[in-house]
Amino acid sequence: MNQITGATQLLGVIGDPISHSLSPVMHNAALEALGLNYVYVPFQIKPQNLKTAIAGFAVIGVKGFSVTIPHKLDIIPLLSQVSQTAKLVGAVNTVWYTETGWCGTNTDVAGFLAPLKTLSYDWSQITPVILGNGGAARAVVVGCTQLGCPEINIVGRDPEKLELFKHTWNNLSSKINIYLPEQLPELLPQTQLLVNTTPVGMYPKIDQSPIEAKILEKLAAGAIAYDLIYTPNPTQFLQKARQQGAIIIDGLEMLVKQGAFALKIWTEKEPPIEIMERSLKKYLKID
């Protein structure tokens, strides 16, 4: 880490809890590699203290910060400007300071899309299947819309929450369809993109999978299986999908890419993506 001096600029991440965040690992590695006199630190902020904390950040000259649970939605009214992407997702994960106040956007969408854009698929012919209907699923839906997917199939366990999810979208160019898990055997053979946005299979419950192996067998060879989870690496879900001949993408790449997009906003420098990824793999003990 760079030596902290009287001229060191401050970046950070806010959340509650925050001790689990990997953002300080990759961002400080990147800042050191870039030779910038910045430091990136975690701030545990209770929901009732959010407004006071953001005002305090402005006073002490914080340049920008990442936003994680539970503040991604509640921070929006405290910002002077919010990007169209963040409005569509309904959440902000990256904030920076300008002369007019705090501005916010959502880099999760760009982070999700980054590995997909390297693949040669006709997205206008693909109907993605998304497992889960929480906050992470919203960023994935917006990403799939930006790819040009005409329809998106959402799979969740709670019919009421699914209906609510379906009807919270405004001006979305893709059609949202909702399904229960028992309908997966019909959906999987027809898709080329299967995305898990649920926490099922995340450490420490590494033996779990959001889809039973027998059902996952219906996924077409050559389809993409994408898991937003990054530990374990790979998850049971991705291991089984790879056995089926699927192209697999893990959550570590999305984590790094969304962080890289944020870092570029704060520093106006090209982020050292390989160094960010390598720092996380070393920290997580991933080969």
From TrEMBL:
Pathway listed: Metabolic intermediate biosynthesis; chorismate biosynthesis; chorismate from D-erythrose 4-phosphate and phosphoenolpyruvate: step 4/7
Protein EC: 1.1.1.25
Function of the protein: Involved in the biosynthesis of the chorismate, which leads to the biosynthesis of aromatic amino acids. Catalyzes the reversible NADPH linked reduction of 3-dehydroshikimate (DHSA) to yield shikimate (SA).
Subunit description: Homodimer.
Ranges of residues in domain Shikimate dehydrogenase substrate binding N-terminal: 13-95
Catalyzed reactions: shikimate + NADP(+) = 3-dehydroshikimate + NADPH + H(+)
Sequence positions that bind shikimate: 21-23, 68, 93, 108, 230, 258
Domain SDH C-terminal: 251-281
GO molecular function: NADP binding; shikimate 3-dehydrogenase (NADP+) activity
Gene responsible for this protein: aroE
Protein family: Belongs to the shikimate dehydrogenase family.
GO cellular component, one term: cytosol
Source species: Aphanothece hegewaldii CCALA 016
Organismal lineage: Bacteria, Bacillati, Cyanobacteriota, Cyanophyceae, Oscillatoriophycideae
GO biological process entries: amino acid biosynthetic process; aromatic amino acid family biosynthetic process; chorismate biosynthetic process; shikimate metabolic process
Keyword terms of this UniProt record: Amino-acid biosynthesis, Aromatic amino acid biosynthesis, NADP, Oxidoreductase
Pfam families reported in the protein's UniProt record: SDH_C, Shikimate_dh_N
SUPFAM superfamilies: Aminoacid dehydrogenase-like, N-terminal domain, NAD(P)-binding Rossmann-fold domains
KW Cytoplasm (keyword) present: no
Protein name: Shikimate dehydrogenase (NADP(+))
Highest rank taxon of the organism: Bacteria
Coiled-coil annotated residue ranges, if any: none
InterPro entries per record: Aminoacid_DH-like_N_sf, NAD(P)-bd_dom_sf, SDH_C, Shikimate_DH, Shikimate_DH-bd_N, Shikimate_DH_fam
Positions of NADP(+) binding: 132-136, 228, 251
Catalytic residues (UniProt): 72
